[in-house]
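Dear colleague,

Following up on yesterday's call, I've attached the two folding results inline so they're easy to grep. Please treat them as preliminary; we haven't cross-checked anything against experimental data yet. The first protein's sequence and structure tokens come first.
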Amino acid sequence: MTDLRLMVAGASGRMGQTLIRIIAESPGVRLAAALERPGADGIGEDAGTRAGAGATDVDIDTDAARLVREADAILDFTTPAATVALAKVAARAHVAHVIGTTGFSPAEEAEIAEAARHTAIVKSGNMSLGVNLLARLVRIAATALDADFDIELAEMHHRHKVDAPSGTALLLAKAAAEGRGIDLASHKVTAREGQVGPRRRGDIGFSVMRGGSAVGDHSVLFAGEGEIIELSHRAFDRAIFARGAIKAALWTRGKKPGLYSMSDVLGIS
């Protein structure tokens, strides 16, 4: 079987360069195109050389409509607006789209769902295999433990992260809400300050920390009377997200159009 041709969006960014390095060392895939926004650093440079992966003969370019014709799948960890625009390009070209971007509005989510009518899209708040397994465990725990156990999520990321709570925290909270059979939107508590009163039974609370270079730490606590159960994941290297995204891209081979998750990729949905 020929190597899967991958296009990396945001090729000059931290995650884009990580993707390019991991593609270079991964069997079954090759870098076919590297996309950046107009005015970004690195345009016209060899994407592999810029990422420290060695020359690839793939230059960083801004023409998404042209570059997508060189690819079988797109790896995208950019911004919500850029991802939505790229989803439309991928849909027209019937090219698979792996989305690790977070922070979408409901309207943007709807646009991605519409694009998935025309091509396979794998979208997740976190592409790490470990985090997605953690989400499954959180759902099992939330199903087994009733509302006598309060659910709290704690997360920390580097100082440059722009959305809060993180997409991963929301992924884990959604798993907990599904396990409890409740609506996350009506039970989510993202801020506490002042005289807030006692904790409401059934709420799912969030604690958000930002600082330094932390790649991503997430914990889900089930706090009962006299005991606490804690499920955690700590990321030390962005390469784990890149490896998960590549696994997702390989999984899309032969898949019908649709909006898929990493749970589908791992067979634990």
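Below is the second protein, in the same order (sequence, then structure):
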Amino acid sequence: MSQIDLQWFAAEDEGKTEEPSEYKLRKAREEGRLAKSQELNGTLVFFVTVIMLILLAPWIERKCEEVLTYFFRNATATKVDDKKFAFFCLKYFLIMILPIALVGMIAGIVSNLIQNKGFLFTTKTIMPKFDKIVPHFGRYLKRSFFSVEGVFNIFKSIFKVAIIVIIAFCIIRLNLTSIFNYLRTGGPRLAMKSFAGMAAVLLVICAVLLLAVGVLDYIVQRRQFRESMKMTKQEVKEEYKEMEGDPEVKSHLEQVQRAMLRQNIQKAVKEADVVITNPTHYAVALEWKRDTAELPEVTAKGEDLTAQNMKKIARDNGVPVVENRPLARGLYTDTQVGDIIPASYLKAIATVYVQIGYLDKKYAKV
């Protein structure tokens, strides 16, 4: 089968250039809108059912023989208990069919769980929508026959039918002579076994090929769903405004920001020239990028536990820690991370830099 360019399934709406946000994907999931392939569900159930049928074939054969034996023994009886006969046939029918049906149900549930990434219960998909009562034949025809999705579905159906017909024709043609020979020499029992083996081979080959088609359909459905969920720049802005009022999203964003802040503080302290403390409540990290700035810059600051953590990181990485209570308190209050130190602190900062030997070692000649 030729490769399919998944770009065919790109979002058709103009302006939808932004990837869908986690918020939008989560809302879609809550509404029951997911990337899902019914094709994969059906083929997986078919595949597992075929395997189960082949494994249980000898046992099913014995059960069928028991039913036929019972039928022929009672066929000539003058008085037949219809209820007893019907109950006997129903019992054997259920015994033979239930294991296969149960395995098929389990396969269907597992397939849905895999595609849904867990259990999903929602009533929104079964809520009546009055705009769907009036049939839109034009839209249906366009989507079914005059769109890339429709062409793909038609191609998929034709391929399945064609592959089954071709495989069935080849297998029957290869085994037809042997079946007639069994009928002439070995009797109908051997012929039936030969026919059953041929049918098993046909079912397995078709199940494997259809499963491959189902996997391909799932990949296409995922890509198509992702493209359909893309957003315009305006939608991104509106969603951000909506998210600001969502307590759950707000809490999540705060957690992410705190994690990023911790990571940035660690990096900033490692690269700092000095950490000024008061010494228990406040800590301020300074870095002087002489090539790009005329004065040192505040690269990190913190209080209480964050301040203690900054001092530990500084000591572990050989960064000088200077205790200066009024300077640490003033810098923490009057500056933000990324600020150049105010002119009012210039003399005090210069004293600190001389104290740690920074000016003498690096800029003595300046």
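For the second protein, one point worth flagging: The longest helix spans residues 188-228.

Best wishes,
A.L.
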